[in-house]
Predict the 3D structure of the following.
Amino acid sequence: MNVWIAIGLTVVGCYAVKLAGLLVPVGALERPAVRKLSALLPVALLAALTAQQTFSTGHELVLDARAAGLAAAALALLLRAPFLVVVGVAVLVTAGLRAVTG
Amino acid sequence: MVIRETPQGVIERPRSAVIRDGLGVGVAVGLSGFAFGVTAAGSGISVLQACALSLLVFTGASQFALVGALAAGGNPFTAAAGAFFLGTRNAFYGLRLSQLLALPKAVRPLAAHWVIDETTAVALAQPGRKSARLGFTVTGLTLYVLWNLTTLLGALGAEAIGDTTVWGLDAAGPAVFLALLAPMVKGPTERAVAALALVLGLGLLPVLPSGVPVLIAALAAPAVLWMKGRRS
C-alpha cells in the first residue's frame, strides 16, 4: 500500500510540474535566481543519490563491488561512451568483481 | 546537409534529418528502460508497479530515485518528495518548449507528459518551429513506447533471474544517476554543489530516517548560490 501511495504522489507531482511549465505565462519563472536554482537542484540530488546508492546499504556506509562499477562508469563517461555502455560497464564490472571475490 | 528556406525565412532542416535525430535519442535512451525495470524489480516493487511508474511518471531520474528510496526503506512521502524535486527541472523545460513549439491549448496536457530531458534537447537543437515540433514528437513517441516496453521486459527478466545483485544490477541505478549528472557539472558552481550534496547525502545517511538525507542534500543548491551571492 505504501508503495502505491508513493507512486500516486510521484505521478501527480511529476505531471503537475511538467504541465506547469507549458501553461504558466512566460516570465513567471524566468527570474535568474529561480532559473539558476532549478538548474542546480538536479545536480545536488543526483550527486547525493549516486553517492548513497554506491556507498551504502540501508543506514550503513559500505565500500563494495559497486564502487568499482561506478569507477568504471566514470571512466566510460570520460571516454564519451553512450549512455547504455556506461550503465552496462558498471553492471559488468560489479558482477565480475563479485564473481571473482565471491 | 540539405537546407530549405521556409516562408518565414527560417532555415529548416529536412524532415528526414530531424526524424533521424529523434529516433537516435529515443532508441538509445528508450532501451535503458530495461535498467529501470530490473532495478525496480530488484528494489522489491511489483512488475505492475514498475510499469505504472514508466507509463504515468515517465521521467527517468525521478523513477530511479523513487524505487531507490523505497528499497532503502524510506516512507512514501520522503520517497515521493525526492522524486518530485528531481522532476521540477521539467517545468523549466516546459517554459522553453512552450515558446518554441507554440502548441494549441488543447494539445498541451498531452504534450506535457513528454516534456523531459531528451525531448527538450532534440527540440531545442532544431532551427525552426516545424522541425522542433517534429523532433519533439518523434523523440517523445519513440522514447515512450520503448521505455515502457523495456521496463516490462526488465521487470519480468529480473523476476526470472532472481538475485539481481549477483548480476551486478544494483550498480545500474547509480550509474544512470552518474550519466545524467556528468553533463550538468559544467563549472565551479556545479562542482561545489555536487561535492556539498555528496558530503551531506553520505554524512547524514547513518543518522537520519531513509529518504531525508537526500532532501537535505538538495539544500546544497541554494546554499552554494547564497554563498556565491555573498562573495560577489
Notes: The first helix of chain B runs from residue 15 to 30. Chain B touches chain A through 99 residues (CB under 8 Å).
